[in-house]
């Protein structure tokens, strides 16, 4: 299984979001085997995009979630509300939230715990080091710290857990990590998560950061890379089609 998660970030109005969702759907038309595609529009467009995705093979995801199912958290959207909107995935701990909005590890852990209790929403936990951390040779230790902080209090159970390795220096910069770096960090992530009691078959490790139609195949063809979290390129229909085609090609090739 390969995952392609489209993170549209704080872009697009409702109508534009629906149009992009429709356009993205066209890429899967006529394909027998397709990746698990998750579109993550802004919270304002979730309801309308949900209607567009109903009875299709694509899924709806939220870019963020409040720290509980429901309650006194002014301005937040809780897990129960995301379920109500038809979300089946939720991104948690994106580095833009951690770094630009000051979201601490403790908040990420609370959000993950809240989503973990949902019977319908699968979490996509983002982790990744800064440039300075990598230059200091601390990338593995830093990412491991993020994982432990988010996962340690979580009770393993038979539920999918997606982890997106997104080095901060690769996001929106045009400079992706090398496939080798993504693979070695991916292996560390997988072994750390499994050491906490999660079953290997329930864990998927994605890569994110400056992925494009041109480089998608080189990541996706690696069996250990379970998919991509795509930002900028997911806003451009043609680029997204290229990425989805690459995923379909890889899946078909692996099936023969
Ligand atoms: P990018 O963003 O693909 O534009 O680098 C990825 C992300 O932030 O999830």
Radius of gyration: 17 Å
Strand content: 15-25%
Order of adjacent strands in the largest pleated sheet: 1-2-3-4-5-6-7-8
Q: Helical residue percent?
A: 40-55%
Say how many strands there are.
8
The structure class reads alpha/beta
**Heteromolecules bound:** 2-phosphoglycolic acid
Q: Describe the main β-sheet briefly.
A: 8 strands, parallel, barrel
**Shape assignment:** globular
The N- to C-terminal Cα distance equals 14 Å
Spans of at least 5 consecutive residues whose pLDDT stays below 50 are none
The residue-averaged pLDDT reads: 97
Order of helices and strands: EHEHEHEHHEHHEHEHEH
Count of helical regions: 10
Account of the 3D structure:
- There is one protein chain.
- The protein has 256 residues and is α/β, with parallel strands linked by helices.
- It has an 8-stranded parallel β-barrel, surrounded by 5 helices.
- Helix 5 (105-116) packs across helix 7 (139-151) and helix 7 packs parallel to helix 8 (179-195).
- It has helices spanning 14-26, 46-53, 79-84, 95-100, 105-116, 131-135, 139-151, 179-195, 216-220, 237-255; strands spanning 3-7, 36-40, 58-62, 89-92, 122-127, 161-165, 203-208, 227-230.
- Bound molecules: 2-phosphoglycolic acid (PGA).
- 2-phosphoglycolic acid binds next to strand 8.
- The site of 2-phosphoglycolic acid (PGA) has 13 residues, from strand 8.
